[in-house]
């Protein structure tokens, strides 16, 4: 990459770079994203311009175990849900979603697109938890995600493997 490749100008973004994401376990999920960070050569941090159509949601209610996420509202209005509480979102609002914090999702409650600058880190070893669905997810390999029923996960201490003779 040349030094100028690390600068992403809105005028240089092509509509074909926008891609649609829909969480497979939430039929209200629909978000259109244009990745900025990949284009600028970043690999540990993800930043995108995201557009949520009227009446749609970002993903399923979830929380990460390792990775942090955030949004900054550029235009439109909606709501952010933290566990069972919903708060209004307006242009200029910023939300942080810390690991193991409240479960969250974003909903467009208006009649125009809700446009966000969104991002998060890409640390390995992250697990997602979907409290309403009773599922935990992790990256299985480069192109697959595993969904495991939360009530079928057995947690055992490392001491179970350490035996004194």
UniProtKB/TrEMBL annotation:
UniProt KW keywords: Metal-binding
Coiled coil spans: none
Signal sequence, start to end: none
InterPro entries: Cupin_2, GPI/OXD, RmlC-like_jellyroll, RmlC_Cupin_sf
SUPFAM superfamilies assigned: RmlC-like cupins (SSF51182)
GO terms of molecular function: metal ion binding
Record-annotated Cupin type-2 domain positions: 50-117
Name this protein carries in UniProt: Cupin domain protein
């Amino acid at each position: 990459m040349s030094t100028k490749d690390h600068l992403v100008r809105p005028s240089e973004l092509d509509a074909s770079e926008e891609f649609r994401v829909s969480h497979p376990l939430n039929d209200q999920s629909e978000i259109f994203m244009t990745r900025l960070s990949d284009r600028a050569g970043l690999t540990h941090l993800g930043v995108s311009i995201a557009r949520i159509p009227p009446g749609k949601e970002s993903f399923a209610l979830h929380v990460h175990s390792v990775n942090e996420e955030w949004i900054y509202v550029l235009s439109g209005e909606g709501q952010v849900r933290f566990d069972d509480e919903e708060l209004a979102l307006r242009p200029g609002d910023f939300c942080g979603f810390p690991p193991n914090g409240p479960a969250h999702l974003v909903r467009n409650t208006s009649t125009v697109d809700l446009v966000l600058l969104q991002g998060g880190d890409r640390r390995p070893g992250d697990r997602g938890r979907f409290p309403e669905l009773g599922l935990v997810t992790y990256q299985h390999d480069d192109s697959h995600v595993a969904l495991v029923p939360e009530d079928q996960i057995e947690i055992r201490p490392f001491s179970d493997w350490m035996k004194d003779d």
